[in-house]
Every structure is written in structure tokens, then in C-alpha cells.
From TrEMBL, chains A, B:
GO terms for molecular function: 3-dehydroquinate synthase activity; metal ion binding; nucleotide binding. Residues 74-186 form the 3-dehydroquinate synthase N-terminal domain. This is 3-dehydroquinate synthase. Its EC number is 4.2.3.4. It comes from Aureimonas flava.
């Protein structure tokens, strides 16, 4: 039955909640086989958005059917607004209407929006059902598919409501990424670069040498996804619920979230990965300004992001609103604030990031004022 | 500051999620002290219903204020319909509006409805905040305050949506129970009896000797609550997520849920504890009929429930609808069904319950037909 080459397997070690991420070209063909082998007897509700479903749902459902897995499909509108209480209720209600049991699985076929929403629904229906991710964006394959974070947005902010709910299996088909718009692939690549910049200088160097091959597809892309998943899995295994070192994964994200918020999460202006790219560049320049990071390392990080076609300066983001006040306000509101103290991920150089727990707001303000002055 | 006697402390052992249940008369007076000692620096959102808030909220808020805990109050309508998606959103939104952080606490002041709803909100706001229970019903003190089950109802059934979210602290003031209607106290007592019937024959005997004293209040009541919490804590510690032995806690509940469902969850007809009482009596008689349980044990279990003023037969429930078809349909729908097989808690005698995983539907049908024939 299986015609694709054997996938690369990355294990996320979380005790009783451990799971495998399978990564490879053409994996969607064999999804049913892998599902049935690991969740014998389970039924499936596949959740997708209309755009992704039109491209990939038939293949996934056919593969599940070949493996004898009873499955139905629920399609939702594409876009960030789908991460709402209303759509959460829709998914939960469908799970209950199908009389799925705890041992059955919700299968998320899509990017981060579908994964976050479906994982949350799986986490609360019957107080927790099984969950399988089939991420179809690079961002989802290297980031949201690892770590069990699920959630929706609230009118008061993004991802403010959710649970930690680990999947039972992740199937990342790297061929599927060929259907992504170039801009979305680039945005996901920002998160790949992030793993190098956090604590893997060798991986960063490898990315410098292999960027074009990764964008083209083939074995370099599989390796980039696998290395990213391994990097995130190592962090998550040490800190499942984000109480400590997992904060390193937020490199570039405090700045990035503030930028996304000021841009009103308008994807025409800024998508998440682009915000992270600018945010990582800012984190490196801020670290250099504080005398923590050699100038040449900050330059090299920024150069690689630019070579990938990613923005690295606030001025590159179209539209208005990027004032010092707006940015400082957003940073103070960031949900990763702990008891009022500002936590930032800074760096001592390429691949030498660390958690700085008491960044002085004055220093941050002075730095951002300079950046905005351009 | 503290004037009440030292409370009894019951530890729920769940590794990093372990917590204490403090039990004693007048404990509400000292709630702030205990809260601040265990959650230093945390702020609180107290969630209650209007009935309970009118009786007890002032005392709790004053105690928190004396201990220097910043707290605000959210009151919701009383009754089971409050366990809805809409009210869940209300609580979550208030948590976010107050800018409470993960280390702050949602405090549930009320019975099972408020505890289940607030615990669920605490479990999903910011992907999990701290949670403190101040149970004000006997049922909540001996059952829902132990084990971390939270949730709401769906139009498709009760408690079908929720999470496991352990509290950081439980404060059970046994004096508060004096304000309960007699019928509600009795209904809670059914769950106390349950712990004896599951696997504590000595406790069951002690209840036979001390029932009147427990209803009157005083040390026997504290001991009954503490022993119940210890019993549930022991089961929960062995099976946090209800994959195995925790099922024993459902003694009387498969029948009970079916009866509640047929009675349309109308509290004028049947409240949960009464359903459990009839359900436990049915489980004992069914076990006797299957030749598993000595007749005298079934009689003694039933006699104690009746002595406490609790119903033990389906015919005692007012109203129509208790047909064999309706009951069998509800039992088949019970959310504790695993992959289609009927799981029942049966018993070999007083305090000798066990999980029966393949009860023949025919035997069950024949037994219920006889019961309904009277």
C-alpha cells in the first residue's frame, strides 16, 4: 500500500503523553496506514478549512478509508477569525453529534488556525479525546504541531483561551508545502531560523548553506522540518507547560506579537512569521545595544532573514500606528508577562539566546525610539 | 486572626499537581489566611451564584481582604443551566478583563455548578490558571471538590465538555452546610454513603452508627467529609484521568444518570444525589440478581439510604417517562461507554464494588423490566 519513502520520525518525549512526528514527502498517501497502526479501532473527525480541504481532503479521506478508518469531514472558513468561541462550539458539537468517544480522534488537516482550534476542541470534548495533526503549512509543521498548545482568540487578545493537549500523532507531508503561497512559506521559514538562533548555531550555519534547497523541496526540506521539530521537542520535553525554558521559544515573539497587534492582525500587512522575523532582528539588535551580543552576530542573523525575503525592520511593515506608546503598551500586555515583570528573550550571539527576566522598560523604550526614528 | 479550630487536612497526591483539602467548622473566616499562605501574591476572582453569594460572599471577601488578597466578585444565576458555553465565556472574559495572570486564582464559592464552571474557566483562560474551591454544598465538599473534573453541559448531554484541572487548594467549611435545604444535604449524603459501598465497609458501618450526628453537624460531620475526601483522593491518585479504577466512583451513576436524563434534570423531580441513591440501590439489587452479591448486603445498603430519607426505587421518582426503552437508550448513551461495550459498577457485597466491563444488555433489560413492574 505504501509507496512513499519511509518518513523521518521525531519523538516528543512527554512520559505517558509522548508521541511521534512523522515527516516526509507524499505522507498524506499513507496517512490512513499510520493512523490505523497507532490508533487501532479509532474513528476520526477530520477538521479542515475550505481552502486546504479543496486541495488535500480527498486524498486524506481516501487514505483513511483504505486503512479501514471510519472518518467524516468538517470544513470551516479559512482565516484567523475561525479561532473563535463560536467555531469551537461547532467542532465540539460535531464531535458529540458523531458520538465519538475518548479513544477516537479529531484530525486537524490545515495550518495553525485549524490545528489550534481542533486541538482545543479535542482537549475539552468529553474532557479530552485523541488528537492527530496533519499540518499543511510550514509554520504548523515546525511550530504548532509540536508542544500541545491549543487555543482560540478572545476579543481581548490572541490565544488567550486554550489548553495544553498533546497530539497522539503528527503527520507532516513536506510535499503539501508546494501548494503554499511563497509568502506563507517564507513566513514559516522564520520559525525554522528561530531554532538555529535559540541554541543551535550549527543548524543556523546549515540553513545559511541550504536555504535555496529547502525552499525548492526535497531532502533538505525534510531535514529542515525534522531538525526544527527535534529542536522544539527538546525544549518542550523539558518544560511541557511553559513554566521555564520553554520561554526561549518566544525569541522574537514579544516584539512580534506587539507588531502584529498594532497591525491589527491584518495578514495583508503582517503575518505571524514576518512579525517573528522582525522581532528576532529587533531582539538581536537590542541585545547588541545592551552590550550582550557581538555586532557581527546581529548582522549575520539579520542578513539571513533578509536573504530569505523576510522583513527585519519595523519600517518595512505597511500602514500606520507603530508609535513608541503603542508598542510599549502591547509589550506590557503580552500574556507571557509574569507578575508584572518584563520577560524578554535576548541573546549573547548566534545560537546563544537566554531568558532575561528583568529588562528595564527605560532601556527598551530608548532602543525602540531609535528603531522607529530609523 | 484565626479563631476557628485547626482544620482537618486531606492531601490529594498527584505529583506536581498535589493539593490539600482543608475541612472544618468556621473555615470561611480564615479563608484569606489559608489562601495567602499557599498562593502568596496571587489575586483572586471569586465566582459564585446569587443565592450562595448572598449568604457567604461577604465573609469570604472580608477574610481575603484581611489577608491582603486583592479580590473581586462575579455572581451568576443559580441552577444547572448556568453550566453553559455562554456563562463559561462570561467567566473567561472577566478573568481576562481583570488581567489576571496564570499565577492568580479563580475561586469557586458554591456548589457543583459553580465549581465545575469556574474550574473549567480557570483551566482554559491563559491555558490554565490557578483554581481554589470553596464548596458550599455537601455534594461539592465530598465529590466535585476532589479530582479535578470540570465542565459544562452541552445540548447533547451533561458534562460532555470540560477539562481535568486540579485545584491548588480546597476549603470546605462544614458550618456552611447548615444553610442547605434538608433535601440537598440528604442528596449529598448519598455520595458519602457511596464511598462506604465502593470499598470501605468499616466506613459504611460507621455511617450506620453516626448518621444522625452527621446530619446535626459537629465533629461527626467533619469526619464524614474528611473520610469521603480521603476515599475519593485515594482513587483519584491512582487514576487521575479516569482510565481505570476511577470508574468505581461511578457506582450508582450509570443508572443515576439515566434516571436524571429521563426526569429531564428537573430538580423538582430528582436531584443528582437522589439519582445516585436509586442507582446504588439498583446496582446492589442487580448484583444480587446476577448471583454476585449476598441478599442481606443489598438489603442493608438500601435500608441505610432509606433511613437517610433517600429514594431507592424508580417508582419513588415523581412524573412519567420511566420506560424500559427510555432507560436502556440512556444507558447506552452514557459517556462512560468505551468503544461500545457496557461498563457497569457492580458489587460482591458491602464495600466490595468492582468494574464489570461486559454486562449483557439482555440481563440488564430483564432486571430493569422487573424493577419497573414493581
Amino acid at each position: 500500500m505504501s509507496e512513499a519513502p519511509s518518513p523521518v520520525s521525531v519523538r516528543v518525549e512527554l512520559g505517558a503523553r509522548s508521541y511521534d512526528i512523522l515527516i516526509g514527502p507524499g505522507l498524506l498517501q499513507d496517512a490512513g496506514h499510520h493512523f490505523a497502526a497507532r490508533l487501532p479501532g479509532a474513528r476520526a473527525l477530520v477538521v479542515s478549512d475550505r481552502t486546504v480541504a479543496a486541495l488535500h481532503a480527498d486524498r486524506l479521506l481516501a487514505s483513511l478509508a483504505r486503512a479501514g478508518v471510519a472518518a467524516t469531514l468538517l470544513t470551516l472558513p479559512p482565516g484567523e477569525t475561525t479561532k473563535s468561541f463560536d467555531h469551537l462550539m461547532t467542532v465540539v458539537d460535531r464531535i458529540l453529534a458523531e458520538r465519538l468517544e475518548r479513544g477516537d480522534a479529531v484530525v486537524a488537516l490545515g495550518g495553525g488556525v485549524i490545528g489550534d482550534l481542533s486541538g482545543f476542541a479535542a482537549g475539552i470534548a468529553r474532557r479530552g479525546m485523541r488528537f492527530v495533526q496533519v499540518p499543511t503549512s510550514l509554520l504548523a509543521q515546525v511550530d504548532s504541531s509540536v508542544g500541545g498548545k491549543t487555543g482560540i482568540n478572545s476579543p481581548r487578545g490572541k490565544n488567550l483561551v486554550g489548553v495544553f493537549h498533546q497530539p497522539a500523532l503528527v503527520l507532516a507531508d513536506t510535499d503539501v508545502l508546494d501548494t503554499l503561497p511563497e509568502r506563507e512559506f517564507r513566513a514559516g521559514y522564520a520559525e525554522v531560523v528561530k531554532y538555529g538562533l535559540i541554541d543551535r548555531p550549527d543548524f543556523f550555519e546549515w540553513l545559511e548553506a541550504n536555504r535555496a534547497a529547502i525552499f525548492a523541496g526535497g531532502p533538505a526540506r525534510v531535514e529542515a522540518v525534522a531538525a526544527s521539530c527535534r529542536a522544539k521537542a527538546a525544549v518542550v520535553a523539558g518544560d511541557e507547560r511553559e513554566d521555564g525554558d520553554r520561554a526561549l521559544l518566544n525569541l522574537g515573539h514579544t516584539f512580534g506579537h506587539a507588531l502584529e497587534s498594532v497591525a491589527r492582525y491584518d495578514p495583508a500587512r503582517l503575518v505571524h512569521g514576518e512579525g517573528v522575523s522582525v522581532g528576532m532582528a529587533l531582539a538581536h539588535r537590542f541585545s547588541r545595544r545592551l552590550g550582550l551580543c557581538p555586532g557581527q552576530d546581529a548582522v549575520r542573523a539579520e542578513a539571513h532573514l533578509r536573504a530569505a525575503g523576510l522583513p527585519t525592520r519595523i519600517q518595512e511593515i505597511p500602514g500606520e500606528g507603530f508609535t513608541l506608546e503603542a508598542l510599549m503598551d502591547r509589550i506590557a500586555q503580552d500574556k507571557k508577562v509574569t507578575r508584572g515583570s518584563l520577560t524578554f528573550i535576548l541573546t549573547h550571539g548566534l545560537g546563544r539566546s537566554f531568558v532575561a527576566r528583568d529588562v528595564a522598560p527605560e532601556a527598551l523604550g530608548a532602543f525602540l525610539a531609535e528603531e522607529l526614528a530609523g
